[in-house]
User: Which sequence fits this backbone?
């Protein structure tokens, strides 16, 4: 089983570069620290005060324009007018809850289920990915009668008591629940070998975890995974490898929860959902971040026979979940994805970006160990020894700071915090590729 | 310790009056059932398809106008233009998250903490009351080192694994966590006696629960309560009784979590917060429903020394929590409460409504056992035997159906489901009192 080596929050303000921060920003930081909990983290040694967003760009209070290579919430582009309009219109009309009938939630339910395999035929709505995963885990436990949960080594699945207990990415101070097992990161770059051997290795590791849960008397409820393995460092390949793991899950009587908070809503280009890219039919699907382009909305889709283990017994009411305004936002996002052909766009521009980043890698082949991705979700891995593939967290952190100074926003991920998480809004276009690649080239050259 | 006799969801569609429902509505119900989880419930035997809201009124798809005597989310009035404007404006500008600096969240943090006792000096933001309570419970456990939680007999505190395990109101199928104890409902109407005796009884019951948690080895973390005891049937009196309970909590090394999702934001008229009405200084305060007038936003305020037990160890990031749009909504709500003097309004109109409802009680003194409330949160209790105070759930359920037909929307609460929860938007005005009281009088007369 995997050991923990969490790096969450290494990209954060620590107060050691205050002399480089202007007075107004520093005052805002101090006021923030005075009133807001110490649990909050700010990105960057020199935090940014953003005031405006448009498409793939963000602007700070001094008018500096940044290329946003990180944010997947404003997925269809910052301040997309279609979402602003839909939300405004609905807010002017009505905003109640699911105890009353409302057409929009029914229409949206039908539309989002039409994007799923036919077996996944029921849906529910919440406000956050945490809430969706929290509920999915309870459903999986009710259905299987088992308690045991398997997540990836560096997974992040939420902030609730249950989901944070399944989120090693929160750091070593975060206790992992006794009935949760951590499955090794599917790091094809390091594990290597043929696709077949890699898949056999991964499935073997999964089986070991399942066996351990059963031996310890917890039983096996589910494997909960984001199929792009976002916080594990972005691991999309070989395409289809997660399917083999899901077969192991089913063979052992468990259910697979596809956490689509990261790879969903055409992010990976190959399909609407990350799981579909791997050819999987999941039992439960959780969705969140990009769903409402920033308006809080999340969902849980399910095979009815799995969900009924819960829904036949228990009511579920989420006050804001699925309210008319949230549904209007979600509906607008779906419409834009279709009308602007964002899946095709993401696939095409994602491939071009990947190719361009590989050119950067060639130029800096002594420090860039691997570049991999699907659609507009790319991992760009820094190493200190190219042969040994030694993770270079320091260089990655220095690089994102320098990129910030060069008006490109991104952050790091992976168990060693050495992988740039390149995940722009889907408004990112071919014309932006030069900006990000030139900045990367320049910054890598400076860092040496 | 209290036994469980939950009634949640007794106000719901069951399909037995379909012949009375028009074809279009029935089709929408069927489509909803096809796509949405069986965990969803609809209010009323004849569900309502609402399409528009304004101030204290709601309108269905046939244009029928209802007086909303139930909804506290659109607290400052349905579709309040100040919130629509603030949200629209911010959506056009920017909607990111708390990893970047943003002035609105800092400004709002300062303003909301200014409403608290000076000891409560830190704040965090989430999206739902469930998330706020889930986190508050974890903070309480970290701070005290104890695991034991006490909630009220019919409490509802959320939908997450942890909070639903503290929510007996979800029904007898909902397992209560082994380290949770249920404290008897503070039902002054039935317990009776002098204020002093009532308080002594309540504190004694609380102490018994604390002792039991300690004896069983769980230790004592907290008492989590909504000081209006909303799902317990609305129990505001005697004013100050919760203060005595909180003293017991502190004497036993626990913390008090004031769940202000119901009584907060001037609902009770006497104070901005429900806990303030009782003269309490809480350790943790959770807020939700009315905070953004329907835009999902919630918060946790805390004494810094309590919160630090958590925040010194663990980061907390809630993707949508405290985002600029949510904060703009929350800021607008606060501004409206102040500018429209809603606390004074709530106190005055609440007193007038209570007096008018007591007149209805006089006229129907054989079936209305008790009417009690604070501000615009009133419980109206139906009994079958006025001497024995026997709860009459059937009459209460028939009454809310009949009220629905007479264009007044409300629902029931309490361990026996016999208490009308009268909780209109704060836009409710003196001119509306006759509407609700006439309807009540008429419907009670019909029911006999």
Assistant:
């Amino acid at each position: 089983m995997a050991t923990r080596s969490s790096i969450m929050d290494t990209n954060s303000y620590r107060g050691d570069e205050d002399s480089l921060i202007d007075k107004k920003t520093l005052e805002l930081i101090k006021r923030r620290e005075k009133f807001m909990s110490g649990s909050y983290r700010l990105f960057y040694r020199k935090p940014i005060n953003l005031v405006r967003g448009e498409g793939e760009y963000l602007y700070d209070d001094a008018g500096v324009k940044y290329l946003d290579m990180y944010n997947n919430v404003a997925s269809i582009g910052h301040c997309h007018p279609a979402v602003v309009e839909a939300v405004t219109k609905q807010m002017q009309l009505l905003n109640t809850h699911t105890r009353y009938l409302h057409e929009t939630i029914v229409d949206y339910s039908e539309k989002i289920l039409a994007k799923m395999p036919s077996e996944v035929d029921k849906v529910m709505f919440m406000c956050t990915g945490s809430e969706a995963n929290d509920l999915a885990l309870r459903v999986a436990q009710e259905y299987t009668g088992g308690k045991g949960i398997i997540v990836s080594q560096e997974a992040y699945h939420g902030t609730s008591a249950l989901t944070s207990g399944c989120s090693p990415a929160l750091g070593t101070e975060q206790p992992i629940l006794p009935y949760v097992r951590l499955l090794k990161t599917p790091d094809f770059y390091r594990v290597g070998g043929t696709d077949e051997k890699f898949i056999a290795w991964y499935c073997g590791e999964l089986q070991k975890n399942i066996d351990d849960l059963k031996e310890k008397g917890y039983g096996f409820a589910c494997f909960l995974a984001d199929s792009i393995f976002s916080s594990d460092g972005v691991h999309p390949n070989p395409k289809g490898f997660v399917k083999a793991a899901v077969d192991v899950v089913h063979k052992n009587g468990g259910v697979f929860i596809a956490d689509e908070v990261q790879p969903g809503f055409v992010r990976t280009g190959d399909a609407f959902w990350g799981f579909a890219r791997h050819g999987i039919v999941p039992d439960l699907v959780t969705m969140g971040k990009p769903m409402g382009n920033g308006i809080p909305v999340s969902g849980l889709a399910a095979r009815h026979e799995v969900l009924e283990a819960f829904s036949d017994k228990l009511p579920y009411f989420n006050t804001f979940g699925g309210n008319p305004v949230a549904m209007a936002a979600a509906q607008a996002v779906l419409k834009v994805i279709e009308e602007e052909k964002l899946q095709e766009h993401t696939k095409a521009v994602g491939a071009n970006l990947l190719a361009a980043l590989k050119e950067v890698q060639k130029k800096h082949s002594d420090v860039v160990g691997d570049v991999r991705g699907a659609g507009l979700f790319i991992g760009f891995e820094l190493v200190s020894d190219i042969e040994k593939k030694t993770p270079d967290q320091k260089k990655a952190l220095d690089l994102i700071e320098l990129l910030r100074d060069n008006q490109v926003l991104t952050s790091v991920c992976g168990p060693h915090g050495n992988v740039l998480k390149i995940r722009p809004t889907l408004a990112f276009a071919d014309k932006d590729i030069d900006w990000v690649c030139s900045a990367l080239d320049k910054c890598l050259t400076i860092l040496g």
